[in-house]
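Schema walk-through. Below, the input block comes first and the output block second. Nothing else is stored per chain. Lengths vary across the set, and this one has 123 residues.
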Amino acid sequence: QVQLVESGGGLVQAGDSLRLACAASRRTFTPGIDAMGWFRQAPGKEREFVAAIRWNVDNINYADSLKGRFTISRDNAKNTVYLQMNSLKPEDTAVYYCAAGWLTARAMSGYFWGQGTQVTVSS
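--- output ---
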């Protein structure tokens, strides 16, 4: 079992930046789980993929609509993945979830999940 703990959410204004962090309790040895990433879920909407990165190679996926504003990175020594969010918009308001899993062709499949952190962007 891997525990994922998100941090960094909060209330910001449109145009501001925010950095989320997700710390994994340990690197999982479950076969096939070699990536971490972020999803988000806005009120009344389905959970959507945001970004994901593999642990040991520079293989990254982004949601097309977020490329250029959001950047995912990792610190292997800390078992931590970050999501830098710039030029935030009110439509970015959502609960952001960290996941551990594997990359798919254009997104990620999550196996372990964090509890989520709220990001609210005011206009």
